[in-house]
Specification:
heterodimer, A: about 150 residues, alpha/beta, Glucose Oxidase, domain 1, eight-stranded mixed beta sheet, globular, B: about 425 residues, Aconitase, domain 3, five-stranded parallel beta sheet, four-stranded parallel beta sheet, 15 helices
Chain lengths: ~150, ~425
């Protein structure tokens, strides 16, 4: 099943990837390894997940104002998420992507969705993000009609 | 939508004030768009956190701005950096790392920043005034500046902080505006033993709870005494800004925008009212530790945020009492205190440092254990009095962590294993 939802692009860009969904906020500093793309917050439900290249869906960031630097370094190292989808505007992560655009001309898209759309995303959905914030979702759950 | 720009803003954007100012202004404008802000405003001071982490991209960014003629337009202090600039050779730091860290530090000081290298800037030089509009980075410092000093800052992330310092301009939004500083959730201390507020451990535990409970909301605490020390408020801020994104809290009768409940909520009602009792505090206390009682201890870290002179004195008193009984630090435990040059300079004017040295305590300045590679893989169990350090150590340093107040850390370091007196005010 394919659905299209409209988000607000905080940092415009195009990306595709498999959704990695969590309902828990996460801080990139102390939570994301910029060398490997592993989620390293040992108190987080995604601890240990290798998350590089995924469309990372989480409600909001938390804590450290160093998150922007971690995202920038992750983009430079090629282990950043393919894109980020949040429920709330998370300026600190948007900044990391904007600085990557200014410094390397390589931003990752960051999109904010309304609550019903945000909570409609499921683990492993195939997601495509367009520069205008349009999010195309192909569900991977075993829907017989999609075979 | 682009915000409204002043003539000055446009001069910067056009590149008339140099390439670095142009880049900085472009980032400020894009961030204003992210936040949906209609205009920019002046700030009169900045504190830079972006100088702390050493990464290739962060170094490239700082050097690009410095090479592009970047100069700060407002008095600007530096958070701790990636290196103890004078003593790094003592800590076995890799030379390649050190040379990059020195380059990064130089880029920021070349831009005119004051080399304070402190993550407790509110206990040092250029402390902001009540109501002053500033652009601060470093989550604990942001929380302290807003809550305790009543200065006004948003959470300036790494890189935006230096852009604000170079341009003197920020998006006019968030906590810069009085109406957004209104309390949102009321937390009442209820059924907590009065001795709790006299205990150092209470404040990071309360902060840890608040961060988890309040997230990004502005919590208002009722039940704290009026005379809480700067160090205890520092511990509260650091913990609340780690487990959550608390950038401002009010405490009735204690912090400057909360003389009364009415003032803290600006005449409105709280969104909700919650009670904090021994159960909530007990859960927060437990949540701060991942190590077990009795675990072999490898490392004690104190000074997150940076140790103040008062904390140096408290530690020296505890150590002196042990040394007088001819006790010694366990051979298996490394004991590290992190601080800044200004507090260390005060400590030099007392016998504190001599006692720390006699006891075998290492002191590192300008940096911290998260940002300089001084903790080896052999370190398995770390103990700290800091909610922030306890929160981040498992992920950043791959250790188990035990939280306890300074006296517990000292007792454990002499015994060689985690040994805490669980406070009587916890359930």
């Amino acid at each position: 099943m394919v659905r299209v939802v409209k988000g607000r692009p905080l940092v415009a860009g195009q990306a595709s990837g498999r959704a990695l969904v969590t309902r828990e906020p996460i801080s990139f500093w102390g939570g994301w390894c910029p060398r490997t793309g592993e989620i390293i917050d040992r108190r987080h439900e995604l601890s240990g997940v290798m998350a590089a290249g995924r469309v990372f869906v989480f409600p909001r960031g938390r804590g450290s104002s160093t998150a922007s630097a971690i995202l920038l370094e992750s983009i430079k190292n090629g282990v950043a998420p393919a894109a980020i989808i949040n429920l709330d505007v998370e300026p600190i992560l948007a900044l990391g992507s904007i600085v990557s655009d200014e410094l390397y001309q390589r931003p990752i898209p960051i999109v904010v969705l309304d609550e019903p759309d945000f909570f409609s995303l499921e683990q492993d959905d195939d997601i495509h993000i367009a520069p205008d914030g349009t999010v195309t979702v192909r569900s991977n759950c075993s829907d017989p009609t999609s075979a | 939508m682009q915000p409204q720009l002043s003539e000055w803003d446009q001069r910067l954007l056009a590149g008339n004030e140099g390439q670095a100012a142009q880049t900085a202004m472009r980032i400020i404008v894009r961030m204003a768009e992210v936040c949906g802000t209609a205009e920019l405003m002046d700030v009169t001071q900045a504190h830079i956190d972006g100088c702390g982490l050493l990464s290739d991209s962060g170094l490239e960014f700082a050097e690009a701005l410095a090479a592009g003629g970047g100069r700060v337009r407002v008095p600007t202090t530096l958070n701790m950096g990636p290196l103890d600039l004078q003593n790094w050779t003592r800590f076995g730091i890799d030379e390649d790392f050190a040379s990059k860290a020195i380059r990064q530090g130089k880029a920021y000081t070349d831009m005119g920043c004051v080399p304070t290298w402190s993550c407790a800037p509110y206990q040092g030089y250029l402390t902001p005034r009540f109501g002053q509009q500033v652009a601060w980075g470093e989550s604990n410092a942001i929380c302290y500046a807003n809550s305790v000093l009543g200065a006004r800052t948003n959470r300036y992330a790494d890189f935006l902080d230096i852009c604000a310092a170079i341009t003197g301009r920020v998006p006019k939004c968030g906590l810069h505006l009085r109406e957004n500083r209104k309390g949102q959730i009321l937390y009442r201390l209820a059924g907590v033993d009065p001795s709790a507020v006299e205990s150092d451990a209470f404040y990071p535990v309360l902060g840890h709870f608040l961060g988890l409970a309040a997230g990004e909301k502005i919590p208002v605490i009722e039940g704290l005494p009026a005379g809480v020390s700067s160090d205890r408020l520092k511990a509260l801020c650091a913990a609340a800004a780690s487990s959550g994104a608390v950038a401002l809290f009010h405490a009735i009768g204690l912090t400057p925008e909360a003389a009364t409940l009415e003032e803290a909520f600006q005449g409105d009602e709280p969104e909700r009212i919650e009670e904090i009792g021994p159960t909530e505090l007990g859960e927060a206390w437990d949540h701060l530790s991942t190590a077990q009682e009795g675990d072999n201890l490898d490392l004690v870290v104190l000074g997150c945020p940076h140790f103040s002179f008062d904390e140096f004195r408290t530690l020296a008193d505890l150590l002196r009492a042990r040394l007088e009984k001819r006790q010694k630090l366990s051979d298996d435990v490394r004991f590290v205190v992190i601080s800044c040059q200004s507090s260390h300079a005060l400590a030099q004017r007392s016998d504190c440092l001599k006692i720390l040295e006699q006891a075998g305590v290492e002191i590192t300045l300008d940096t911290c254990v998260f940002h300089t590679p001084m903790v080896g893989k052999e370190t398995k169990v770390l103990m700290t009095n800091s909610g922030k350090c306890a929160y981040y150590a498992p992920g950043e340093l791959s250790v188990k962590v035990a939280f306890g107040e300074i006296a517990d850390c000292v007792a454990s370091a002499f015994e060689g294993r985690v040994h805490r007196e669980k406070p009587s005010w916890l359930e």
